[in-house]
Specification:
The chain has 226 residues and is an alpha+beta fold. It folds into two domains: 91 residues, no CATH class; 120 residues, Trna Endonuclease, Chain: A, domain 1 (3-Layer(aba) Sandwich). The protein has five helices and eleven strands. The two termini are 39 Å apart.
């Protein structure tokens, strides 16, 4: 386990295990979780750490000092930090359910004709795990499934992660083999440049307008089908 604090950027980095990082997810715009291929948390990055934690009292750099006192103190601080991080996760989950889901349901039903909409879908298969913020599909004449990834602050990695998720969708959901699968990247904060990159990748884009999500795709947009 390794704990590092970068004073020049006020960034706290906690590495729990040295496994390869499979994806990075936002808890909020200043907190990132690095996950391995099984969905385990490998590391946490916290921006503006001095404003959000007691990092100034943390004296550990790289590895724990070889004294019981420092080990116990470090363990206590890590437990406290874990409580704060779990609180951030709950806050983000509430945001997704309270803000993103109702307005996204409207988009999925009215603009895409979706019949079934499920938030927070988690599936495991062969030791692998997949988590989807919102999954919508229809079994009628229009055979279509839509995967929605909700981000507080979209980054280039958000596009890569959603494309990767879509490429693995049929492996985890073979019952949807006959459906066209599309992706929507929904973000509270997304730059114009990143929006263009998402569109180029064939993803629909949704952004906050008057506190609700609205599609932000040009009429000429042609989505990619997975």
């Amino acid at each position: 386990m390794k704990i590092q604090y970068f004073e020049d950027t006020d960034t706290l980095y906690i590495e729990f295990q040295g496994q390869q990082i499979f994806e990075t997810r936002d808890l909020d715009e200043n907190t990132l979780l690095d996950l391995d291929s099984k969905g385990n948390v490998g590391a946490i990055t916290i921006e503006h750490a001095s404003q959000r934690t007691d990092v100034c009292q943390l004296q550990v750099e790289g590895i724990f000092q070889e004294t019981d006192r420092l080990q116990n103190e470090s363990a206590r601080q890590i437990r406290e930090l874990g409580k704060q991080i779990r609180g951030l996760g709950t806050k983000f989950g509430s945001f997704t359910e309270g803000l993103a889901l109702p307005s996204m349901e409207t988009i999925l039903c009215q603009q895409f004709g979706m019949e079934i909409i499920s938030p927070s879908v988690r599936v495991s298969k062969g030791g692998e795990h997949l988590e989807i913020d919102v999954l919508a599909y229809t079994n009628g004449e229009i055979k279509r499934a839509i995967v929605v990834d909700v981000q507080s602050h979209a980054r280039e990695e958000s596009i890569t992660q959603l494309v990767n998720l879509l490429s693995r969708f049929r492996h985890f959901f073979p019952e949807h083999w006959n459906k066209q699968v599309y992706g929507i990247l929904a973000a509270v904060d997304m730059s114009a440049q990143l929006r263009d990159k998402a569109l180029q990748a064939g993803l629909y884009v949704a952004r906050i307008q008057d506190e609700v999500f609205e599609l932000d795709t040009p009429p000429s947009f042609t989505p990619r089908t997975w």
